[in-house]
Amino acid sequence: MFSGHINGFPVYKRSKSGITSKEILDICIRGNVLDEKVCTRVPAGITESGIFIVDLQAACYKDLTVDDNGVYGSHSSPSEDFQVFFDDRGNISAVKRIDKNDKETISEIQTSRSHFIVRRQYSWPRKDKNFRRMIAKVEHEEKFLQFAIVQI
Length: 152
Prior knowledge:
The chain is built from 2 helices and 10 strands. With 152 residues, the protein is mainly beta.
């Protein structure tokens, strides 16, 4: 895994292919990330590919959308519901994506401690549709967990 910085911000990893929902859940639920890979401020002015982990106890989640790469004119905000299973050591042993049309299952797991929602926000600047910024947060019991993921 790459270690380093972009514009003074610690990089979790460099990847143009993105980050999976399972990896987002693992980072945000377990919080098992080296301190030197965690940003205490929201990365701004980033123009090269990178995935950043932001500590929401140090940076306000509302600041996640602040950037100095111009005005973002297009947005998309999909979310996915998951049932997460843990082993005896607290590690994620399995992740099951819940179909939004399966109202019965969603209703059943919403009251369980195994229900997590991955909320993503994709944004594109008005001037450059080839550039995209993705912000992912994990919600559990109507609260965001400690870490957010910013991918540029």
